[in-house]
Design a protein that fits this description.
- This protein is α/β, with parallel strands linked by helices.
- It has one domain: TIM Barrel, CATH 3.20.20.140.
- Helices cover about 30% and strands about 15% of the residues.
- The protein is built from ten helices and eleven strands.
- The strands form three sheets. A five-stranded parallel sheet has the order 5-6-7-8-9. A three-stranded antiparallel sheet has the order 1-10-11.
- Strand 3, helix 2 and strand 4 form a beta-alpha-beta unit.
- Helix 4 crosses helix 5 and helix 6 runs parallel beside helix 8.
- The longest helix is centred in the last third of the chain and has 18 residues.
- The radius of gyration is 19 Å and the shape is globular.
- About 50% of the residues are buried.
- The mean pLDDT is about 95.
Length: about 350
């Protein structure tokens, strides 16, 4: 038997609030099945969290769940990258983290204003780094041999990170890079930390355990943003965690109905679920020690949220049993990167 503290995810797509079509308990079920007590909910729900009115709608649903939902405010209205939201109103409501995740803040002038304003308010920007997200979102990382698939080059990520780090240096704004995917991005974060900039970063389980060698372009299950990249990139992400350059393992949990994933790679929706599979897949990989996983999935996410004013006081435990089995998602949305994976641990019960 193994006990762990509850995990805290810094990157979950709750999908709600929406027009009452998403079953909100599925987020709760996936989280509890995977050992998570707290999740940080992205703002790109069907009703985006770009106003206090919409935040209050989300909070009404959040309060019905057994897990703790921490909210992010959108950087721009409707996540369109055109007009900044009212950051001060969000700060007054206890929301200090801002992100358009699913999209990047592309416009350089708007980005400068956002970093300046949020820096003054002692808030934080969590950035999804994708240069072409508003104009020509892509499908797959190089090498790309398919005319119908749009290539997502590494610089789509690193150019946004490089620009943002310049703004962090200028305004001292707290900055967190979401779902790193490349060796170059790790190098940029390393340099920023060596210069004592207020920067943290996350990586997903699927970018740590999968590479573009695993992709079957007749199957949309591994289509995501950022894309799975080379084995060299994957190894750099692992080393970045172990060296303290990357701070957190976050799931980027993105539920999609099977009809949007069990299709060709081109037609597939981008994203995978990860709350339920993260710990069992990572523990079974033998890449990280149990102490390392607790640090990356519980202690460090908690430290980051607490430093930004979020209450993560849960001290309950999860219990796991070591056994050879096959992982299958129990909750409704099964678009996992690790379905049918042979694993060495399963959740016995939970006090979460």
């Amino acid at each position: 038997m193994i006990q762990t503290p509850p995990f805290i995810d810094l990157h979950t797509h709750t999908r709600y609030p929406d027009n009452n079509s998403f079953p909100i308990n599925e987020i709760e079920d996936a989280a509890i099945n995977g050992g998570y007590s707290d999740v940080l909910a992205m703002a790109n729900s069907e009703i985006p969290i770009d106003s206090i009115a919409n935040l209050n709608i989300a909070r009404e649903f959040d309060e019905k769940l057994k897990i703790k939902i921490h909210r992010v405010g959108a950087l721009t209205e409707n996540l369109e990258g055109k007009n900044l939201t009212n950051f001060k109103e969000f700060i007054e409501e206890g929301i200090t983290i801002f992100s358009d995740d699913g999209k990047s803040l592309i416009d350089d002038g708007l980005a400068e204003n956002a970093f300046k304003e949020i820096g003054k308010l002692n808030g934080a920007i969590f950035q999804h780094c994708e240069k072409n997200c508003h104009t020509n979102p892509g499908d797959i990382a190089p090498p790309n041999k398919f005319n119908e698939l749009i290539t997502i080059h590494e610089n789509e990520e690193s150019e946004i990170i490089r620009r943002d780090l310049g703004l962090v240096k200028k305004f001292k704004t707290r900055y967190h890079v979401q779902h790193l995917s490349s060796k170059k991005s790790v190098e940029l974060i390393k340099e920023a930390k060596e210069n004592n900039l207020p920067v943290t970063a996350e990586v997903t389980p699927h970018h740590l355990l999968r590479s573009n060698l695993d992709i079957n372009t007749n199957d949309g299950s591994l289509k995501m943003y950022p894309p799975l990249r080379s084995e060299e990139d994957r190894q750099a992400l692992i080393e970045g965690l172990k060296d303290g350059i990357i701070d957190v393992i976050a799931t980027d949990h993105a539920p999609h109905p099977s009809a949007t994933k069990e299709v060709s790679f081109k037609e597939s929706a981008r994203g995978v679920v990860g709350l339920e599979s993260a710990f069992v897949a990572l523990f079974s990989s033998n890449i990280f020690s149990l102490d390392e996983l607790i640090y990356f999935m519980s202690k460090n996410p908690q430290n980051i949220l607490k430093s930004l004013g979020y209450d993560t006081s849960n001290t309950l435990a999860n219990t796991w049993i070591e056994t050879d089995s096959v992982f299958n998602t129990k909750s409704f949305f099964k678009n996992s990167a690790f379905e049918n994976l042979e694993v060495k641990i399963k959740k016995e019960f939970s006090n979460v």
